[in-house]
Design goal:
The chain is built from 35 helices and 4 strands. The chain is mainly α.
Length: 698
């Protein structure tokens, strides 16, 4: 066994004991887990089909199997089910090493080239070495000899006389300790006057360091600047008397100067000492020194980002992280920490739109060239962060949720394979929840479906599929082909949610579901039968068999509700809000199909039902009866327009290719019914803007 390096000795002194204890606990926990699993399997064999019933109720095992199937369909062999059980925001693996360790590494002076080659020579790997088992046994043997020397000095003396070779290891340990002490003293002497304990940072020092870095690419000046940056990022610890930084930051002006100087000078120095070639970091000279500097800079930058509360400062730091994202990718630990911090900033309740957009841009750039694990972590974290913060409280929160949804959709376009796996698993989980609710049919099971988190999850995946299988299908055809198979199951889930509880109280939720189906159908061109769901609302007993209750309540904004409040049930105010939304959906649905070659025949059943409804209850709803009459007239005009264009055709109905190209140059919004639907959308947008202004005024 060769001589141990300084890094190995330092690890043995500081961390080996804790690491051995952690491994023992982990091994003991694994043994207990295996025993429990063995007992469960024995009980399962005795109880027959108990486990299968439980799986049917939860659906967890089924989702795990389907995750494997989703991976296999794309030729990927990694097991996604294990990854789906973890939460990136609660990942404890990233905290194995602390910022104090990074500063300790930064304080070390340059070592011999032989030593640096033994420890993390490849910056792109991001891996750390571990102590061999032989070194663990050696350390345990040392402790046993030391204990024997104290407890049984006579036997120890006997060993010195008869077997002195066995005690040479203690002498070597003493020499290593003396060598470490002398190295520490030499490092303290070489650090100079500027690194005296608690030296106060001045503007003159910062300017001098910046000049040396830019002019001479001085490693020593860069090290001092990063130590000052470390002190600036740990000012709270310094105030509490817990900081061990060699510099002190006094006043906000020095703090701002330190941060701005470091952010200007450090990337310039790293570009010289660790240039990026073909997307990979190529360190020059002493790799270990450059690696310590990079780690210190990234750790301080993340710590500073965690402490900031000003939106402008947070955006500034996130953009700086985006500039050096290629260096973050070189270290797995800091990549995970950066993803977690960006997700925290993205989902923060106090974050503004600029912070969320900056977080998205940094995440997208990080995932663009990262490994599969980082991409999975970013995609899963983005979706879960969106779901956690998707509860609608008022009209203003709808705007924030829409922005977060759009950001998530953008991120899911960076990797088609990973996006398909996540979409497959999470859409299947939504289907399992819906299936369980339909089987149990209890208040608790209905409550698991009829909530904003579930509905906004459907909205998220609807927007993902509508964007990449419709709006951007030509830009990313491979991603469109991958995700298109998920359109049908998502449509079935949305239709099942809409019809789960078909009562008047949940008309707002059904209207939300119809809007999702309409968005998916309009974007992808896949026909979805939306009109029956809307006409079922008009033919409900609330309009045909019961007289509405008069009320002086304010109009109910259905966009911010999934069910009618108790005081709004059966009132005329509530039903008028429902009719306005339903007529808007009818106009949008008919307008989306108004350039189809079969439009005149397709619209006949719907027009018959609408005319029958107007004749039956039109006198009770005079305003909406006139509005419906206008819609029917526009439908007739559009049908005549399609018939006029069909008279000019020279192909038969069996020619589907030519039929699909019918009126392809005509926009649906330019038809008579399309123009009418656009005017209704404009009125609804104005009403929504007035509601937002009223909430802001309150």
């Amino acid at each position: 066994m060769g001589k141990a390096t300084k890094a190995t000795k330092r690890f043995n002194r500081k961390y080996l004991k804790d690491e051995l204890e952690r491994r023992r606990k982990n091994k003991k926990g694994q043994e207990l887990y295996k025993k429990r699993e063995l007992k469960k399997s024995k009980r399962g064999d005795a109880s027959g089909d108990t486990d299968s019933d439980q799986d049917q109720a939860t659906g967890i095992d089924e989702v795990d199997d389907l995750a494997d199937f989703a991976a296999s369909t794309l030729g990927r062999k990694e097991n996604l089910s294990k990854f789906m059980e973890a939460d990136p925001e609660n990942d404890s693996d990233a905290g194995n090493s602390t910022d104090s360790e990074d500063m300790a590494a930064l304080l070390q002076e340059d070592e011999d080239d032989d030593d640096s080659s033994d420890d993390d020579a490849d910056l792109s790997s991001g891996e750390t070495g571990e102590t061999d088992e032989d070194e663990d046994e050696e350390d345990v043997f040392k402790k046993e000899l030391e204990a024997m020397k104290e407890k049984d000095p006579d036997f120890f003396k006997y060993m010195q006389q008869n077997d002195p070779a066995s005690l040479k290891i203690l002498e070597q340990n003493s020499e290593d300790a003396d060598e470490a002490d002398s190295d520490a003293e030499m490092e303290a002497d070489e650090s100079g006057d500027d690194v005296a304990s608690g030296a106060e940072v001045t503007v003159k020092m910062l300017n001098q360091w910046e000049r040396e870095i830019k002019k001479d690419h001085s490693i020593k000046a860069l090290k001092k600047l990063l130590l000052a940056f470390y002190a600036a990022s740990h000012m709270d610890s310094e105030r509490n008397g817990q900081s061990d930084a060699p510099y002190r930051i006094q006043g906000m002006s020095i703090f701002n100067k330190t941060v701005s100087t470091t952010i200007r000078a450090a990337p310039h120095a790293f570009a010289h000492h660790a240039p990026v070639v073909n997307g990979k970091v190529q360190a020059k000279g002493k790799v270990r020194v450059v690696q310590a500097l990079l780690k210190s800079y990234m750790a301080s930058l993340l710590e500073l980002l965690r402490q900031m509360s000003d939106a402008a400062m947070i955006q500034y730091l996130i953009k700086e992280c985006e500039r050096v994202v290629v260096y973050f990718r070189s270290f797995a630990r800091y990549t995970r920490e950066l993803v977690k911090e960006l997700l925290r900033q993205f989902g923060s309740a106090s974050a503004d739109d600029g912070v969320r957009i900056s977080s998205l841009l940094a995440l997208r750039q990080l995932a663009a060239g990262a490994t599969g694990d980082v991409v999975d972590m970013a995609l899963k974290g983005m979706y879960l962060t969106y779901v956690r913060h998707s509860s609608v409280k008022n009209m203003a929160s709808l705007t924030t949720i829409q922005l977060m949804r759009n950001c998530g959709v953008e991120l899911y376009g960076c990797d088609g394979g990973a996006s398909y796996q996540h979409a497959f698993v999470y859409i299947r989980q939504l289907a399992i929840h819906l299936r369980n609710s339909m089987q149990l049919r209890s208040k608790e099971s209905f409550r698991a479906i009829y909530n904003w988190q579930f509905v906004n999850s459907l909205a998220f995946w609807t927007e993902v599929l509508a964007t990449y299988c419709g709006d951007r299908a030509d830009d990313q055809p491979d991603l469109c082909a991958t995700l298109e198979s998920l359109v049908y199951p998502l449509v079935q889930i949305i239709m099942g949610v809409a019809r789960l509880v078909p009562t008047a109280k949940y008309f707002p939720l059904r209207i939300h579901c119809i809007g999702l189906l309409l968005r998916l159908s309009s974007a992808t061109g896949i026909y979805v039968p939306v009109l029956p769901l809307a006409i079922e609302i008009l033919e409900s007993p609330e309009f045909l068999g019961r007289r509405p209750v008069k009320s002086t309540l304010k109009p109910l904004p259905l966009d911010a509700h999934l069910k009618a409040p108790k005081e709004y049930e059966h009132t005329r105010v509530y039903l008028e809000s429902v009719l306005e939304s339903v007529f808007g959906i009818l106009a949008d649905t008919v307008a989306a199909q108004s350039v189809r070659i079969a439009f005149p025949e397709w619209v006949v059943p719907a027009t018959l039902q609408l005319r029958r409804w107007r004749k039956r209850v039109g006198k009770s709803w005079t305003r909406f009866s006139k509005q419906l009459q206008g819609l029917l007239e526009k439908i007739d005009q559009s049908a005549r327009l399609v018939q006029q264009n069909r008279t000019k055709l020279d192909f038969s109905p069996s020619n589907l290719t030519a039929a699909n190209q019918f009126m392809s140059t005509t926009e649906p919004n330019s038809t008579p019914v399309g123009t009418y639907a656009a005017s209704l959308r404009k009125v609804r947008a104005q009403q929504r803007a007035l509601l937002l202004e009223a909430e802001a005024a309150e």
